[in-house]
Amino acid sequence: MTKEEWYKQLFERIGNSKFRSSFHLKQKDIDYINEKGLDTIRQHATATCCRECIRKWHKIQLGRELSQIQQEYLVDVIMTWIQREMERNKD
User: Fold this and answer.
1) I need a labelling partner for 61 at 20 to 30 A (CA). Which of 12, 35, 48, 73 fits?
2) Residue 2 counted as domain residue
3) How far lies 30's CA from each of 37, 47, 56, 73, 85, in Å?
4) How far is it, in rounded angstroms, from Cα 75 to Cα 13?
């Protein structure tokens, strides 16, 4: 499965969760991102909410330290969501 295919399925599944789909960037977040730039935001994005959610949504096993590849993947997922939110709020 390609990255694009996985992300499409991932965001569709998350979008079907009433709880998860309720989260959106606020205007102050958008302003901060616009001020700092996505490269700076990427360096500061650290994780998702907890390891149980990482296991559930991203299929990454509990009880092990995240590898560099897994960390980069999670940051990339977060950045993809932020970029989608930024596009959603363009007007």
Assistant:
1) 12
2) no
3) 10, 19, 28, 22, 9
4) 18
- pLDDT average, residue stretch 61-81: 90
pLDDT recorded at residue 48: 64
Here the contacts of 1-6 (C-beta below 8 Å, separation 24 or greater) are none
> For residue 3, is it within any domain?
no
pTM score of the predicted model: 0.63
Which residue range(s) make up the domain with 28?
23-88
Q: One-letter amino acid identity for 71?
A: Q
Number of domains making up the chain: 1
Task: Please tell me the distance from the alpha carbon of residue 73 to that of residue 58, in angstroms, as a whole number.
Answer: 9
